[in-house]
Structure formats: structure tokens, C-alpha cells
Amino acid sequence: MVAAVSVPSQAQTVLRGRLCDPAFVHSALRSSPDTNYSKLKYLVASSVSEACNNSVLLLGPRGCGKAAVVDMVLDDLRKEHPDAISVIRLNGMLHNDDNCAMKEIARQLCLEHQLSFSKMASSDDNTEFMIDMLRECGLAHKTILFVLEEFDLFAQGKQRLLYSLLDAMQSLTSQAVVIGVSCRLDADQLLEKRVRSRFSHRKLLFISPSLDDIQLLVEHLLILAKDSGLPAKYITDYNSRLTSIFSDKKFKGCLNSLMDADATTSNILRFLFRAVSYMDVESGFPSIESFLKALSSMQRQPKMDSLQDLSILELYILVCMHRLEDKEQSSYNFTSIMKEYRSIQDAYKTSDKYASTVCFRAFEHLLDRELISFGDNRGRNQALEYRPVKLLISSRELAQSLKLNTTCPVVLQKLFDRERYM
Amino acid sequence: MSQPVTPRRATRSSAAYPASPTSPSGSRPKSTPRRQPVPTAAAKEEEGEHERSTVDVLLEALPGRRAQATDLLRLLAPAPALPLLLHGGAATGKTRALLLALRHVRPRPLRVAYAALRSLPSPRALFASLLTQLSPPSSSSASSRLRIPDKPSDFVAALRDALAGLSAQGEAVYLVFDNLEVVRSWDKGGQLLALLLHLYDLLRFPQVVLVYVSSATPDAYYSMTGSIEPNHIYFPDYTVDEVRDILMRVHPKPKLYSSFLSVALKPLFRVTRRVDELVAALEPLFRRYCEPLGDLKAVPDESIKRRLFEHIQPHLAVALNETFSVPTRTSVDECKDRSSGGKARSKSQFGSRDGLPTELEFHMSVSAKYLLLSAFLASRNPATLDAALFDSTGGSDNHRRKRKSSQASMNMKDTMAEEMLLKGPGTFPLERLLAIFQCITSVSEDYLGDVECPDSMMNGSGMTGLMPDVLLQLSTLCNSNFLSKSRSCPLEGSARYRSNIDEDLALKVARSVSFPLSKYIYRR
């Protein structure tokens, strides 16, 4: 189809594949001791081998690798005990409704054990089926692992699913482990009293990696190993260049500023993905410029960008709104803005005097860009010109954007500054 | 206020590529789903291209979008790729750039499923659209058997099945969600938005690449749940020079058009920077610009340019003060018929120095006009003034004696004026409206002396013969949004109405029936 893919493109593909594969990203955890991975593995493995019930919660901010750790543990266990485990996965976003969740559990159980699933079964039938299956699997020494993602969403409402699950685990013959994953650090406080009493209060806390860990992670992800399927000379050249970049001060500064904003693993992955994609395929090797370019494209400020895109009339409207706010008018609408606009035009006689319809169109553009919004929730009864509006940008942002705008008329800048001295 | 009508975007891109076989389906209408690009001659000629020249081809088609196009090409392919979010204002070319890039990306994607969220009415329609686009073409005859899922969980399961069938072939599948911001206003939109942004984690297919296009900034989509944040690409608005390049691209008379643009573009650019609105405003202006020229193929020199500039100047001033409006029949006729007193008529159309048209642009019956005026007065004036303004003789200016106003009363007048600006037009019950209507029409009967009525009975009863139709007129006016019905008063239980027109329109209506409206308006 296409001519032979060049070596740098191949390298790029390999690297991108690595960055998008959570198993590879977190595989370094397998070797290090006393991580959440090892704790979880020990917990689940001991439950499986000792044939007892257990429950655990994994908590941590998003992007810290909780789901990846669960997947790794499950993979390991499937390899070690191939027949003793069956996994049911539920997601709080999809299976919020208890009936829906029961149906999904029944469906996955049927899938695992090659039974035929009937879509017409009622919720009670599904619950009974689940309890029966738990008993049967317990008698056969097979553990069922329930993985509940977005655990806090299951804790909304009546928590019937959680109660029935945890209650079913209390019987002697069942062997089940419930693993809950959630971004809310107080997810266990959301549980009802009767559910919480049946829940073993094991929590594994995930935190964002430190700077050293991130350095190690970056090296692990980007350094190509000998067996990557690429020519050996390229690999050695590439690795040497990469190590020189890692020791560069600018790169360290890059990582620091990235971590100041968001130190989670997924943020680092996004950054590396972008840097790898910006890699110059012609020269074939990574450079510090691609990392810096990736950083700058990740650190945009959307509101400032929108402010740079405005026309002069729209800027006039924003400055008028700002002046009205400075005059301590608690609420104002389009007609008051127009009054202010006309008074400015009469005072300064600029060339930018436009009719009401044109100004209203500019006003609607500002509403679309979400730089201003309506201040009330009252709905459609009032005409748009009379609904109170408010600014969604701060005065500092407006001042900065007026300075940066090259076509901004001087009068506008004066109008904005003059209020300071009033 | 009348809503500005923006023209179809198809004019720009279809005008730019009239005969190209690979013209993108990105211009509106966008409802056709994109299937696998058929290997035609166009595809074969592109096969031998180096990566550098695909970028060039893409940049040719997307003026002023160098950085965004290179970013797109680099971040989209090859799979696997993290999800992508394109954001920017309206009419900045996001969808077009994306669809063009998907054509040029290497390796060729197996399937591109495009969901135009703006034209889909509900989540179920979205599910249906995506699943039909992803189902293998062989089973299209059996598509009636495809059960459209209602719940998100069923949808994700069905999507997984469909993608499993496709990605077994090893090539990339792209799912594009256009206009993601409209999902926020759907019923249960928040959950659906969280689901769509979470699809990357839910599906876990390395061959599937998700692309989102939104005109809202990424801060609108931050959420607490554990979804992976997509890579952003920002599309800024075009600068003046880029707009000029776009407009000059395929124009049959480049020199004439460039001299026109050097005059007309900058002033219009101060009002709005959106290319679709600029095109709508520039088209009729260009026709006016070319009017004095006898031979359109001539290359203009300095003297001709000056002459054309003087000709276009007043029209430009008018165009700056109006949003795009559909030309009425009178103006169209006037364009066709230039010889007979065109200048005089154009003056009357342009009206005052400000350039606002003073004639009413639509037709209403006389009784409807009077009803509208009474509604305007009822909303505008406080109820206590009615007795003074509308006595039986209709004399309104007998009582206007200028009193010396003290400082306190002036302050109170100022605050009341502010309040009126804030609160908007007031409501009035139906009885008050009818009372004012009767007063006004009884006064104006004298002015209507020359209205010819074949029916002698009508002549005798005058306007009162129209009373039964008034309620019909009222409902017509409500439907056209000149009046709106408010909540009825809880004490009295009668319906209350509110007028929605502004003073300019009311003055125009009054002028067309020769009614002295300004004498009746309560001015503070």
C-alpha cells in the first residue's frame, strides 16, 4: 500500500503504542515493593486461596492509575489461577440504576459460564440468579470478583445493589471479593449504615507520583529497549540523545511546571504523547524543542485566547460592562449597556458608533463564546435585551487582552483605565 | 429584535472548489455519514505521495491554518492515539479541517463515523446514527433488525460489539463527535456528556480514536469522574489578512475584488470577525461597487478606484449599521430598474444620516397596527396616566405643563428611568389594552376619512365594526412575538400581556398610519 515506513516513524508508532497502553505504563510497579499493586494483589490472592470474602476500596484522584492497577492484578491472577476466578465489571456511570446493574451482572455471569441469558428476566429473577451463582461458585471453590468503577455513583439513591451484593457475601458458602474504585476520597462515608457495617474498611490510597518517580517513569516510557524491532544503531543513537535531553535544565523546568499544575500520571502521559507526536520525522530523533512545544500547547488559557479573537465592537461591549460593574450597578442588562455605549460615543465621538441590531449581534457572539452569561435562571419569559447579564472574565484578563490586542483603539484603552482614577 | 440570518456555509467552500472531485463533505449539509473512502483515481494518485506533500495539499485547502493542520496530522495518526478535542469559535473551520485531515491521514482509516450532534434530537438518535455507521455494509439490508438501545449501558455494549467486528482487521476507526457543546442543553445531557468523554476508557480498543469538536472551551468539560482528558487543539479566529486571502481565493475578478476589499473589509472587520457574516455583508456591497463600471473586466487604476470608493462610501455606512437582512421586494425591483429615479428612491430607503430605514419592512393590517401601538403604549406608560392621556376628546397635550422640577424629583426620575431600563416593558391586562385601542381609533377616525369603504354600513360604524376581529388580531400578534403573554395575576386571574417591540419599530408603525405616537409616550 504505502512505501516502506521510515525508521523514525516506526519508532514513533512504538512509542505512541506504549503511551496508550496502561499495562505498559504501570508495569514498573510490578517490580517495586510495597506499592498499592502489591498490597492489592496480596489481598485478592489470599482471598482466593483461603476461600474467604473480602472487600476493598481504591481511592485517589483521577489519572493515578487505579484502574490500571486493578487490571494488572486481575491479569496476574488469571495467569496464576486460571480456573478459580471469574470477573464481573460494573461501571457506576452506566449501571446506575439497580435493575440495570442486576441485569448486567446476570449477563456477565451467563457469559462467563456459557449459560444463555434471557433479556426478559425481571430484576428479582436476576437477583435470585446472582445469589444462586454465588452459592454454586462457592461450593465449586471459584471466586467471583466484582469490580465496581465509579463506586461513588453506586452510593447514590437507595444503594440496593451494594446492600444485596455485600449481604450475599455474608453467607458461608459464597466466595466473592468486591473491589471498588472511586475518585472521591470520602466514598466510604457515602455508604448507608447497614451497607457500611458489611463492608470491610480496607482502603488503598493512591497519590500522585513525586518528581523522582516521574523521572523514572519518563525514562521507562521513552527509552527504547534492544528488542523493540528497530535497527540497533538507531536505538543507541536515540537513547543517547534522549538521556542528554533528560539532563538538560530546560527539560527539568518543563517537568516542574507541568507538575505544578497537575502531577497525575495521565497528565504526564498526555505531555509525552504530544512530544512524541511532534518528533521531527526527518531528523528522526527527539529534540528539546518538541518537548517545549508540547508544554506550551498544553498550557493555553482558553479565555485569553477567546478574548484575542474578539472584534472591536465586542471589546467595546465588554468595556462598557466593566464600567457598569465598576459603577457598582448590581445588575444590568443589554439596554443599560447600550445606554452606557451611547454615552461613551457621545462623549468621545469615535468612529465606532453602530446601530442597536448590530450591537445586539455582537452581544450574542459574546454569549456564544461564554465570556458573558445571563445572571438569572428565569427562562424564556423575558426578552433577551432585558435579562440581567454578568461578566465571566476578570478585569485583569480584560486589561491584559486590551494591551495585547494590536488593533484596539486607544480610546478603548483610555476608557478602561480612566475608571481607575475616577 | 429580529434575529440575524447567517447564510449557509456551503457558499464559501463550494464556491472555493466548484469542480474538485474530492470536495469535502464537511460543508453543510453534514448529515451524510462518511463511509470508507472508495479507492478511486484520486486515491491512487495520492498513494505515491511523500508525507511532506500531503501536508502541503492539506494546507492548500485550509488557508491560514498551518499550525493546526500539522498538529492534526501528527496527533491523529497512526493509531493508537489519545482522544482529541478541537475547540475554537464559530466559523473557524474546525470541522472542515478535521474531515480534510482524515482524508489525508496515513495510514488510511478503515472507517470514520461522524455524529453531527447539532442535528440529532436526542441521545437515542445519536446511538442509532453511530451504530448504523459502524455496522458492516453487508448487513445494511437487515438494519431493520438492529435494535436501537435506549440506555447508555446497552449502547456501550452494542458499540463494543460493532467495534470488535471492525477492528479485527487491524486498521484505525475514527469516531467524530461534532458540536459537543449542544449536549449540555439536552435532557439528561450531563450524564451523556460524561459518557461520551469517558468512551476512551470504557471501550479500551487501541484501534479506536475519538475526536471531539466543540465551540465551547475545554473548561466546560472538566469533570470529576475518572476520564482521561483529551489533547486540545485550538482554532483561533482568522486575522484580516487571512480573511482577505480566503475571500480572494476563487474570485473571477481578482483585481477589482482586491481593490474593493481594501476599502470595505477593514471597517466591517471592526464589527464582526466571523467569515460567514462578512461574506453575507460583502456580497451585495460588491454588486453596488461594480455598478458605475461599464466594463467589468477592466483593471481599475487610481482614478477609477477613487470614483468607486466615493460611490460605495454611503452604502458602506449603511451596511455597517445593519445585520444581514433579506432584501425586500421593493429593493430588488429597485436594483433591476436603475434608470427611473433610482437616486431619489435610494435616499428614501437610506433615510436619515444614520442610515436606518424609516419605512416599515413588512405589511400589517391597519387594525393590527393600531393594536400594536396600543400595546406599546400600555407597556410603556404607567396605568395611572391613562386618564390624563386618553380623555374622550383625545386631547393629550393640554395637560403637559412644564413644572419646575426640584432636585429630589429629578433624582427620583433618574432612578425610575434606570428601573425602566432594567425591568423592561410592563404588563397590562386585556381590558386596558382594549380601552386604549378604542380611544386611539376613535381619535384617528378623522384621519381615516379618505379610506374608501364600499360598504356603507362600515362607513357609519367606523372602527368599532372591527371589534370582534380584535381578539383574533391579538392572537396573531402573540404568535408573531410582538406581544407575549405573561403569567396571569394571581388575584384577578385575568391574562396579562406584554409588548415586545422597541421604540424604533413603534415609531415606524405609527408613521405608516400617521399617528402622533410621540405625543402619547410618557417621557421622564
Automatic annotation (TrEMBL), chain A:
The Origin recognition complex subunit 4 C-terminal domain, residue ranges: 217-401
Keyword entries, A-Z: ATP-binding, DNA replication, DNA-binding, Nucleotide-binding, Nucleus
This protein's name: Origin of replication complex subunit 4
Gene3D superfamilies recorded: P-loop containing nucleotide triphosphate hydrolases
GO CC entries: nuclear origin of replication recognition complex
A biological process term (GO) from this entry: DNA replication initiation
Primary localization class, coarse: nucleus
Organism in which the protein naturally occurs: Miscanthus lutarioriparius
Stated family: Belongs to the ORC4 family.
Subcellular location: Nucleus
Pfam families: AAA, ORC4_C
One MF term in the entry's GO annotations: DNA replication origin binding
Domain ATPase AAA-type core: 56-202
Role played: Component of the origin recognition complex (ORC) that binds origins of replication. DNA-binding is ATP-dependent. The specific DNA sequences that define origins of replication have not been identified yet. ORC is required to assemble the pre-replication complex necessary to initiate DNA replication.
TrEMBL record, chain B:
Domain spans labelled ORC5 lid: 257-306
SUPFAM superfamilies reported for this sequence: P-loop containing nucleoside triphosphate hydrolases (SSF52540)
Entry GO MF terms: DNA replication origin binding
Residue ranges constituting the Origin recognition complex subunit 5 C-terminal domain according to the UniProt record: 364-521
Compartments it resides in: Nucleus
Primary residence: nucleus
Keywords carried by this UniProt record: ATP-binding, DNA replication, Nucleotide-binding, Nucleus
A Pfam family that the UniProt record links to this protein: ORC5_lid
GO biological process annotation, one example: DNA replication initiation
Origin superkingdom: Eukaryota
Compositionally skewed regions (Basic and acidic residues) per UniProt: 43-54, 331-340
Biased composition (Low complexity): 1-25
Residue ranges of the region described as Disordered: 1-54, 330-353, 389-410
Domain Orc1-like AAA ATPase positions: 62-201
Family of this protein: Belongs to the ORC5 family.
Identification of the protein by name: Orc1-like AAA ATPase domain-containing protein
Originating species: Miscanthus lutarioriparius
